[in-house]
Every structure is written in C-alpha cells, then in structure tokens.
Amino acid sequence: MNRPIRRIGLVLGVLLVALLVNITIIQVVLANDYRDRPGNQRVLLEEYNRERGPILVGANPVARSKETGDTLRYLRVYSNGPLYAPVTGFYSLVYGSTGLERTENRILTGRSDLLVVDRIDQLFAGEQPKGGAVSTTIDARAQKAAFDGLQGKRGSVVAIEPSTGRILASVQSPSFDPNKLSSHDPAEIRAYYASLEADPDKPLLNRPIVSLNPPGSTFKLVTAAAALASGRFTPDSVIPGPRTYQLPDSTHKIRNWNGQSCGPGDLVTLRQALAISCNTAFAWLGNELGDDALRAQAELMGFDTSFEIPLRAATSRYPEDPDAPQTAMTAIGQFDVRATSLQMAMVASAIANNGVLMNPYLVQEVRGPDLAILQTTAPSEFETAMTPLYASQLTDMMVNVVENGTGSNARIPGVRVAGKTGTAQTGNDNPAVAWFVAFAPATSPQVAVAVTVEDAGAPEVSGNQLAAPIAKAVIEPISNRSLSENSASNWLPSR
After folding, report:
1. Strands 133-136, 55-57: parallel, antiparallel or unpaired by DSSP?
2. Of residues 217, 316, 349, 479, which has the active-site annotation?
3. What's the CA gap between 220 and 224, in Å, rounded?
4. Of 148, 367, 455, 480, which is the most buried if we count CB atoms within 10 A?
C-alpha cells in the first residue's frame, strides 16, 4: 500500500471515529436535552397520547390534560389561563412549551427519575403512563388581586413570602390565553401566536421576571441600607436636601419632584428624606457613600445575580464603573440601574426578613400521579443583606413613608404597611414607570410585593397613585391570615 492510500485510510478512520463519538454524544449524553427541546415535534406527538400531569395552585389544577377521543388523545386546558400564564406558560403542538410547562416537563410527562416507581406500577397494571403533578407556591388570593389591579395597565406584580422566598404572586398585563396556543388546530395556533407577536405591548414577555426597568425612587431603599451599613448615618442623621443638587463634575442639576426644598434650611433627616422621596438628599448621599458601597449593598440584595425559580429570571443590574455624577443618579434609581419586579420584591423581602434574603422559588412540591409527595423545595438563604438592627430601622422608615409620606394609598386599617414609592424616567416619549414596593404586617411580615406600571406618564407621586393601590389589594387578603393554610399539602384531598 502506497503512502497516499495510507493517508486517505487514516483520514477516513479519523472521520469514522469522530462520527461515532458524535453519535454517542447525541444518543447518550445529549439525549434528554434533545428530547426536551420545545420544538421536538415527534416527542410532542407521543406526549399527546399520554395524560400530562397537572400544575396546581393550592388544590386547584390551573393546567391539566383533558381526554378528547381524537387521534391526539389529550388536550391541554388552562383554568383562568391569562391569570396564571406567567407561571404555567403554554404547551403547544406548534411552538413547544414555556414557563413551568417547559422547566417541569419531565415531571409532567412522567419521565423524571422521581417517577420511576410509578412507571413500573403503571406497566404491571397495564395502565397508560401518567405524568406527575407540580404544586406551585402561588397564593390564589394574591394572584387574583394583582391581576385585577393591573387591568388596563401595562406592568407586572410579584409577591414573596419573606421568611421562605415562596413566590405568592407573579402577574403581568397584558397577558395571553394559553388555551389558544394548546389547541389541536395548527392554523388557529399560528394565527393567535402571530397576533401576540405583533402586539406592541408584548404579552408573551414574562414581565414579572424578565422586564427590566429603572427602579426609580424604590432604589433609595438600597441607598438607605448602604447608608445605615456604613455606620456614618442613622435614620435621624441630618443631610442636605436642597431644591436642586449640582452633580459633581457636571453642569446637570437634580431636582426634587415637587420643585421644593426637602426641609428647613435645605436640611432633612434621612428618615424624612425617604418619606418624601427627596431626590437631592439621596443623590448627595450616593456620592458620599461612593460607588463601591452602593454596589456592594445592591449585590447583597440580589442585583447582578441570575436566579432560576426554576424559570430563568433576567439579571437585574447595577451600572458598571459609574463616575461621580452617574453614581448620584444611580442612588436615586436612574442612570443605568435596571430591575425586574422580582428583584424589587426581593429588596423588600430582605428588609422584612430581618435583613436575610431568601432565594425565591415557584415550585413547592413535586407529586406523583396519585398526588403523593415525592419532593419538597426547602427554603434557602441567598445572603444576609443587612443586620437585624438596620433592617428594623429601615422598616420603621418605610412605615413612615406610608403613614406620613408619599405612600398614603397603601394604608390598610389595622395593618402597619412598610412601603416605598417610585417613578423612573426612561427617556421615551411616555417616560414614566411607576413603582411601589411594600411588605406587611410590618412587625411580622407575611408578604412582600413589588408593583411596576410601565409607561405611566405621570409625575413622581404616580407611584402612589398607580402602583400603591395594587400593592394594597395584594397585601389585604393575606396580611392578617397565616399563609400556611395555603400550602398544597393542606389543601389537597387525602388519597
């Protein structure tokens, strides 16, 4: 055999080995990944002939499979589809799946290793394979209150149980109806999906965890926390609060929303500055603390960290290397700081939970086809964001915001609510984004909530006008009741 033939043989041998390695990787290592991809039509068609498990809110299935008697044996149906769409996502013959339908697909299809015993039992019993159930952390009361409050607005709401990180509400407006995407009519599915994609308000966007907006004055909670943590300031510290504040190394001036000074002699306490949302005081404070201190505090509260709940949330971000004027703007929630509703609910939650921020989560339990509990999510700490003393001081300052400051529309008779208003300018034609973050009851918090109303087009007090009433509606039904009664394990019927 001459040398050219040997070379060709060697090349072919290498190619053969590479092909075999690639086939092995695809069939063994990546098999589950390829199977679970949303666009895998073969798997979808197979799954339509088995009963997909339900997604539960309390004892109620908000997503379930209904037998049709057709070639595709089961149809996915959603109770109050637009209400729970940010949680369930959709399960579509044409477009695959999103939300919990996607992240929990192996449970819902029955293919998870947690369900191996159930699959064996079904095999010996001669039964069709069934999927497991996913119990969410959602509180139906909070979810409905948030949904009703957002009607006619573009925005989102997230509510969290501070002591655990359980997500009690995740709501967006506008929303969409997953029932129209789960149809067995491909033409109908494509037409509806096209209308959603063409909608300028982007109803398919999971706003509570993906939409990033400047947090405006709600970020002053982070700045205030950094000030207390520095040891240089207390709630009663007197700081400058003039009508305007000249940014360092800049010709630009920051003004207060009402165009007035924040106190006699242009001085104001830190407590009062938060209560009336004094821009000039917090801009000055941001420069006094410096970028490093603000960044460190923001990161302790979840900024610049990616969270999976198990849905992947967008990373809320603190600006990279801001200069002095940019740091001042950041301190009042402007410049390049961006946050999701989830992130700002986490800020409120950390303060409410004596300074400890818990990792947020949306799945409480994984259950078998017979609803037996197979796995429970245990609460876990993300970070200690501040000491209990500073959390207590900041709580009192936030209560003062509601009782004596800009957050009056969040007042609830008999319940002390801790809150903070905010309105951010985005630079668009309709620039305002209205915010309200809060928790209650202040002394034993059961719920922390963040409300975002996008493109509000209102003055600074619009956080109080537009967002605070929604937060109040979410807080009211659960602030005086134990949330433990809402757990799926208590609500689900006995087997």
Report:
1. parallel
2. 217
3. 6
4. 367
Residue 491 identity (one-letter amino acid): W
Q: How far is 171 from 157, CA to CA, in rounded Å? A: 5
Task: Quote the pLDDT of residue 113.
Answer: 86
Q: How far apart are CA 177 and CA 84, in angstroms?
A: 9
CA atoms within 13 A on the CB side of 445: 33
Task: Give a yes or no: residue 340 inside a domain.
Answer: yes
Tell me how many domains the chain contains.
Answer: 1
261 is catalytic: no
**Rounded to whole angstroms, what are the CA distances from 17 to 10, 13, 139, 424?**
11, 6, 55, 59
The alpha carbon torsion through 286, 289, 295, 298 (nearest 10 deg) reads -70
Beta pairing partners, 312 = 308
pLDDT along the chain (495 residues), means of 10: 69 72 65 54 71 96 93 93 98 96 95 77 66 96 97 96 98 98 96 98 97 96 98 98 93 89 96 97 97 98 97 97 96 96 98 98 95 95 98 98 96 96 74 92 96 73 87 88 42 33
Separation CA 448–CA 345 (nearest Å): 6
Q: Which two tokens stand for residue 204?
A: 């398919």
Q: Specify if 228 maps to a domain.
A: yes
Domain that holds residue 459: 216-363+378-490
Look up residue 19 and give its amino acid: L
**Residue 160 is encoded by which pair of tokens?**
């969290």
Burial of 219 (0-12, 13-18, 19+ CB in 10 A): buried
CATH number at residue 419: 3.40.710.10
Where do runs of H (alpha helix) occur along 48-139? 81-88, 99-103, 105-109, 116-124
From CA 293, how far away is CA 228, in angstroms rounded?
11
Q: Assess if residue 114 is contained within a domain.
A: no
